[in-house]
TrEMBL record:
UniProt feature coiled coil, ranges: none
Transmembrane segments: none
The protein's name in its UniProt record: Alkylhydroperoxidase
Lineage: Bacteria, Bacillati, Actinomycetota, Actinomycetes, Pseudonocardiales
Record bears the keyword Protein transport: no
Gene3D superfamilies, per the entry: AhpD-like
Amino acid sequence: MRIANPVLSVPGAMQALLALSEAAAATGVDKDLAELICLRVSIINGCGACIDYHTKLLREADVDDRKIYAIAGWRDVPYYTDAERAAFALAEQVTHVRVSDEVWDEAAKHFDEKQLAGLMLVIGAINLWNRMNVGTQQKAA
C-alpha cells in the first residue's frame, strides 16, 4: 500500500461518497443490479479490493451465484435480463469514457430518467473507488 486510502484520510470524504451512494439508491435503481454493476466495473478496472467487497455483498444478498461468477461474460450467458444487460453495457462504456447512442438508447428503454441518473451515479462512484484503491494499491481484506 502506498498511502492510506484517501477516503479514510481526508475528513468528510467518506461521508460524501456514502451520501452519493444513498442518492443513487433513492433513484429506484435495484440494489442487486447496482452491486452487479460495481462488480463488473471493478473487474474492468482491476480493483481486487472492490471485486472482493462487492462479491461478498452480492453473496450476502443471496444473488444467484451464476450471476456473480459469470459477470465478466455477461454477453455470453443467459442469466441476465435485458435491463441488466443494458445497464452492464452502459457501465462498460461509461468506464471507458465513451457512450454510444445505441447503448444509451437501449438503457433508456429499460430505465426512466431518474434511474438513468442513478445508474450514472453508481457507475461514477465505483470508478472513483476503483481508481483510489488501485492507485494506492489497496488490498482485499
